[in-house]
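Q: Got a minute? One more chain.
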Amino acid sequence: AYTILNGAAAENPFPFASPVSVATAGLLMLGRSLIAEMGQSPVRINQLILGPIHTSTLHTPGRDSWLTGSDVGEIVAQLTTQSVKRSEIIRLTSRAEVPSVLADLAQ
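A: Always. Here it is, folded:
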């Protein structure tokens, strides 16, 4: 399985972020194209489109709703297991969504 990490700028314009938006939109389309090309292949292409992530390098504290590196890692780990049989495009904008995403992947 391959997992592509992307930011919300791939789908939503943000002021003064046009270079990032263009690059991430291209990466998003690459992932979608690979999913289409793989068809019924056992190779899975997963994409995570992520909202804000709180990291220890931020100079200001993040909001409680922001994702953490552990949240992202937990979902990536689940996507790479053999139990997930399909390619996925997952939009994850807040920590509150993590439990339902993990539950959906477990099915």
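A: DSSP finds three helices and five strands in the chain.
Q: Perfect, thanks.
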